[in-house]
Amino acid sequence: MPDNQHIKYLLSEDEIPRAWYNIMADMPNPPLPVLHPGTKQPVTPADLAPLFPQALIMQEVSTERYIEIPEPIRQVYRQWRPSPLYRARRLEKALDTPARIYYKYEGVSPVGSHKANTSVAQVFYNQQEGVKKISTETGAGQWGSALAMAGTLFGVDIEVFMVKISYQQKPYRRSMIQAYGATVHASPTDLTDAGRSILAKDPENQGSLGIAISEAVEVAAKSGGTIKYSLGSVLNHVLMHQTVIGEEALLQMAQADDYPDVVIGCAGGGSNLAGLVFPFIGENFRKGTKTRFLAIEPMSCPSLTKGTYAYDFGDTIGMTPLLKMHTLGHDFIPPGIHAGGLRYHGMSPLVSQLHAEGVIEARAYHQNAIFEAATIFARNEGIIPAPETAHAIKAALDEALEAKAAGQERVILFNLSGHGHFDMQAYDAYFSGKLQDYEYPAAAIEEAQKKLPQVV
Ligand SMILES: *Cc1c(COP(=O)(O)O)cnc(C)c1O
User: Fold this and answer.
1) How many other CB atoms are found less than 10 A from the CB of residue 2?
2) CA-CA distance, 313 to 322, in Å (whole number)?
3) CATH number, domain at 246?
4) Quick one: which atom of ligand 1 is closest to the CA of 342?
5) Each residue of 395-410: pLDDT tens digit?
6) DSSP 24
């Protein structure tokens, strides 16, 4: 029986996981290879060497179940990990539901989201291999600020290509990146061929994550080995670094003497979702538990619910290797919703495969609905969630209300991936009734799907 008092479940610093969980060890079917964009043959470690340090390339393809977390990384994790697991008792009461709702709170990191779990790891491995500078992209700025923080901790320079519309509309994330001493540009820029080619066609282009990736990859690829590249989501090693979230949550659910029936995360590139759910999926695979898993995305950028499961580029220009994933098409530019972290045309290959195999379900919601859920949550739990996170909250509320209608004791766990303190402008738009629900952009997606690369 779950205990009937606690609001939060805490672990000591010594209980920070000693290893990340690698789901590739337990998946019934091996993941499909990443393909070279030119030859369409599986990429080799040598192909990836200009972009990533060796340690991360090895992690990307490893099938070891647990990969040890180096002590210097655990040492930095200590600053905010283990993160708390909360039981949402006031929210349960407000909903008058027999469901028990738990959430893992990743907003306690210095940058306010889960992204620091992998930024610290990635910068560490780069520094170990003598890398002095890393380029990256960022949408709303969460990833850029997380990498910038890790860069300053380990003494590695960080150059960030930030999607132009966010650079202009979310100036405080940009300032945060600068506060950590990193360089930040509004993408598309005229610093790269990729940026110049976009601007030549459309000087007013507002940017997208796909374009910013093209720019950051180009900077690393043309640096002659002096600059590496880093990605904040999507890739296997990134998702693996995030599993500290789920490994801790397993211990904390045991502390609560409870176990989830359903585990939920919002999904942009898939990393916070995977971080929480993969360790629980591992339990399903190895122990036969029957937990359900939910990935939640915006209606205007619905890669899992409406995309094609096919090989596609990770960026807009077509420079990255081809990933087998749910994709809306690499040159699809999603409408300017406020959940900037969910505006990505693709989805992590691991999450995509687990969705295709029926292990992870997916749902999509409109932005007004998710802000309504965020507000209900804030008014009962006190925490103001990021708009991305609000997608997971909406699904948790729906699950709790469904349990109520069915008179069921359902145990719900979701990832509160980050706080929304830098997103109050979006809340303002919601409160003043100015938030637009973009319809599913069927025509634009259909057009983008015609440009999927042909792979036999
Ligand atoms: C970046 C971000 C996301 C989306 O990215 P994933 O890789 O899908 O996790 C979700 N929530 C927050 C708070 C973010 O910063």
Assistant:
1) 14
2) 5
3) 3.40.50.1100
4) 4
5) 999 999 999 999 999 9
6) G
